[in-house]
Amino acid sequence: MKFEVGSGVCGGGGGGSSGGGGYWNWNDDEEEKSMVVKILGKHAFDYLTSNSFITNESMLMATMSLENLQNKLSDLVERPNFNNFSWNYAIFWQVSESKLKKDCVVLGWGDGCCREPMEGEKELKKIEALRLSFDDDEVIQRMRKRVLQKLHTMYFSFPKGYGGPGKCFELGKHLWICCDDDKDGDNEFLNCDSDYYVRAFLAKSAGIKTVVLIPTELGVVELGSVRIVDENLDLLKTVYSVFSPPFAHSSLFNGFVNVNRDEEKFFCGIDIGDRDIRVMDHRLEGVPVPKIFGKELKVVNLNLGRKIFKKKLAARKIEERKSWSTYPNESNGIRSLKNARDGANGSSLGGTQGLRQGCPGIFAPIHPSCTSNVAKQVDWGNDFLLEKFQPPQQAPIHIDFGVGSIVGEREVLNNSLSCKDEKSGVTQERRPRKRGRKPANGREEPLNHVEAERQRREKLNQRFYALRAVVPNISKMDKASLLGDAIAHINELQAKLKVLESEKPTFGNASKVGSSRFEVNHEEMTCSSEVDIEANQKVVIVRVSCPIDLHPASKLFQALKDSDMMSVLESTLDATNKHVFHTFVIKSHESEQLTKEKVLAAVSGESNSRKPD
Amino acid sequence: MKFEVGSGVCGGGGGGSSGGGGYWNWNDDEEEKSMVVKILGKHAFDYLTSNSFITNESMLMATMSLENLQNKLSDLVERPNFNNFSWNYAIFWQVSESKLKKDCVVLGWGDGCCREPMEGEKELKKIEALRLSFDDDEVIQRMRKRVLQKLHTMYFSFPKGYGGPGKCFELGKHLWICCDDDKDGDNEFLNCDSDYYVRAFLAKSAGIKTVVLIPTELGVVELGSVRIVDENLDLLKTVYSVFSPPFAHSSLFNGFVNVNRDEEKFFCGIDIGDRDIRVMDHRLEGVPVPKIFGKELKVVNLNLGRKIFKKKLAARKIEERKSWSTYPNESNGIRSLKNARDGANGSSLGGTQGLRQGCPGIFAPIHPSCTSNVAKQVDWGNDFLLEKFQPPQQAPIHIDFGVGSIVGEREVLNNSLSCKDEKSGVTQERRPRKRGRKPANGREEPLNHVEAERQRREKLNQRFYALRAVVPNISKMDKASLLGDAIAHINELQAKLKVLESEKPTFGNASKVGSSRFEVNHEEMTCSSEVDIEANQKVVIVRVSCPIDLHPASKLFQALKDSDMMSVLESTLDATNKHVFHTFVIKSHESEQLTKEKVLAAVSGESNSRKPD
DNA sequence: CGCCACACGTGACTC
DNA sequence: TGAGTCACGTGTGGC
Question: Where is the composition biased (Basic residues) (chains A, B) (predicted)?
């Protein structure tokens, strides 16, 4: 009925995978703890630490794991859609089984992914930031980020029916919670479910304004954003689809989509069926709906003028289906991850140009039919939850087709084309087992190998998507161009940086220079520029200090210092609207011409190489 | 006897491929023309434009094209070796046939690649720059770069025996020309060949100090560097190998390497032979040289502790050999491009950490035996030049092996192992024709497809290497990590840049800000910082002005300006060794506390968004 | 041995 | 149509 988390090659479903980090051990790290206390307050912290919700992952076994979990989550988080929106965090609460109480189904940490706030979001957060002094606020921001991160990697667990995810899972209904806490007291997070209090508090502390919980067969997907995001049916469907095992999609499709049949042709992000196994939906037989179950299904609501869906091969599907229980009648294909990504977040393809400009657009329903009201009525159906879990039939029945697989596939194609069902034909009993492109050459190992390779590819693509997001002005959309543009961009940035840094000659480490040239710093005297203000008697004395190398007259100072025969008689300063004028009257023991030349030489010479001393 | 440039899939050999750009039409662009005149002088320009050497590519047909030409060239240019050296430009002068005079073999533009000077090289160029004012020099630099680029994309051609490449090709000897033109009059470029005058002049103008010409069967490889590069036998061998068709390598090997037999085991960068077709060199038969022709051949002189050579599959070789005339006796393998790269430039793998720090190391011979003198004695042999050109035997004899190719390969392996020659065995007459992994399924198209895919992969890898070169602190060496690090690096750079730019609020364009913060500028009043010195009477008055935004006390000035209720009573300035202290005594009509808060707020607040007015 | 990363040939698709 | 891009399954080498 279950298999261990992390068994097989489905590493994404494992507990402490890459995004996970580890168990937040409150006792080990005093610094962390005090930080959390500072952010959340003592109340929340006590609640949190005393709360039994925090479990160790080792106490749970995932009932079933989902492949590419981390990738799917990070997809939602790291890849902005064409509206420049992506979720700030995504967690998958996985259906697990407590090792202590075998019959107790709980939702445990599956995997999670979060990201740093983007530019536009920082602005938003700044507005709603706690009213603190500027300095403190920065620190707070940083700490918040860490807490948020910790939060996401924490191992909460929710018994079925308990907590937000638990409730969500039990009811089979999604939750879409928005909280614009400009009005501070009225926190919808807190109202919605008292069991959810802790995490609501945490979320609120982190500036999260929208939390979405979406039940799937395998658990609950939780998404959070610092923005206020309108409810969106496409998103719900897509996420459901992505985070469900393949066999369930037809259930979804039959049940869910029937809510609004017209939507089928706009069924953003779901690509079911493929060319090789043309299992037509009976309902649509003969109806000239243009290949909804075929390969022609496209995103029609992306005004980018680019079809972003690609299909996977039948081999992939069969391969996947093999890992799950096989329901031949429902095997009209699965959504490809790529489609899922595009559907859930939109595509960054072709729309990344202005991504980093902080476009204020919020992910919003595009089709009139996808309104919040419609989505709210959707019942996800509970009947298929928790009932269909079956172990993957790992029975080592291996069929080797022997000959070139292309021929084999063609045959299959012909068969399925004529019979509308891959059950027919002589190859029926073998095909569900294995029908990859090359049916491996004897051993069972390449099966895992294939899966590992898939994940590697997926990861690579993930990075490519992420890279696309950070590189502006991508000339072409192919990988090579992307890399080229990235290289160019890096070079450009480095050149810019060099120029900027050459302006202010390094003193100490360069990064320190950049961090604070002009900051109020009362407690410690660093070597960066600073302002000291004291008010006594009737006047305010402002003392501005800066490293000599950063001062506009630094070279002059150096010249004066180098030649101890010169002395400053008078120094005045004038500021206009645009310029500051320092005037130094210098006297030396030599002739004025000599002094002039000296100063001129010192000031114009390439004396940058000297060390500041 | 030949095939059209660009025919087939060997796109790299085409005339105006990606690196090429296009024909430098002097008549069309007056601006360009005057720029060139300014850079090169009228003399050179006239010579250039009146010279018949400039040909249109359409007048030439490549006699044979080399696969991955652009990749190979950009490899030499864009991928620094472990000494941080890479060539500034690389051109392949391709053996072509004039369409006008069919019997006239000329060297025409094959492809070319150049890059921007690196940091360290800029320093070098600055030293030898024309003595111009500082500002003008920047412009000149930029123009030079463009001219250099144009130079590289120009369509010179060299009849056999004429010009540097032509001579080089005719003689079958390489040319290694260094010119340290600090002593300006004595230009070795000019001395070496009068026909080469134009390009020598151009090269000199571009700051090129080393030009290497290496003849191969298919043309002449020209490399240039702004550095002085010592003659290097490894480089010569490697480049020769890379830019020769596969069948010629044994010729090289038999003739060239025999100069110094001991070098064979150090034959840096040449990986001949592979595991599948173990054609042993007769000379070494039985000799326990550790698999020089086998897969164990490694770079032994890279102290990076990493083996950087990988092997290609036999399929690749056969595929390639198929494109050329097949000389079974000489088919002891070809160099893989990857190896070529590593050999010619060294590997950036594992050594990229300090690459951008402008390491002054120059590509130098590593083996004692690889001295310039040895290299100078090498005769490339002329007998195989131009004699072996044969059209690819495109006869559509198609043999489909039907069964899984792995078995097929294994058979071949066994055969060739036992017979030392793949000619033996029943598949002899078909195998030379086609023996890919999957021998395609009927049509001839996938043959080119395979090649195209190879090139795509190679290009992608190329970019990956280039990316590795610009990303510091690469955590792991795999692609995904590289991408991740690149993304992190971009983000980091962008953050740094943001900080630096926020420090000095933009006035005008940001790039201008960076160019000159403290420069003597007598003739024109720009808005950058400047020093004005006048000497009258007994003292020297130095006036330093800078944009108000760049001044350390800019925010204070702004605060004072914003609140006109404050006035500065006194302003003093003190400079120590390390710091400059501005002290402002400020009086306002309000209480001192209020004033203090105001100043504090103004100084610490986010007032960066305001425009300087 | 298994895992990981890579390169390869190939099919599918797009423009 | 064909060149280019991508994903896939597979082989393989290194650890």
Answer: 431-440
